[in-house]
Write a structure and sequence with these properties.
21% of the residues lie in helices and 36% in strands. The chain is of the alpha+beta class. Strands 1, 2, 3, 4, 5 and 8 form a six-stranded mixed sheet that branches. Strands 6-7 form a two-stranded antiparallel ribbon.
Amino acid sequence: MRSRTSAGLLLYRFRNGQLEIFLAHPGGPFFTHKDFGHWTVPKGEIEPDEEYLATAIREFKEEIGLEIAPQSRFIDLGFIQQKGGKIVHAWAVEHTCEDPISCQSNLFKMEWPIGSGKWQSFPEVDRAQFFSIPEAKRKIKSTQIPFLERLEAALQAKGQ
């Protein structure tokens, strides 16, 4: 049975005084022409006996190719439940990587076209980039918008 719980990292940075959020676009043929409402916090399934934050750090490296130090200052953003029922836990962390980000994502295999008997490999994430908060709220899956709002609230409480 597949895990119904994932963990991920929401990178953020300040550029010209504006908060920007880093989101990932899912790879594979089903998402090629989909944009608004399909971007996501880079995340993945929690392995048995793995701590949630450790999962988030591992999955970020596997999906994006950037390593985030475990001793970084993380902001716990809690969890949400996606439309399909999956629970997603997220942490925010400030990171000043530059654009463009060249994703070095893991690959997955699937039969494509479906029913053809041909198997192809696709990246889990085909692109990733920083967005302003208003743009991120249009790009991200609607169920993940609370992560953006919680990050904004946490940063305001810190005076950022």
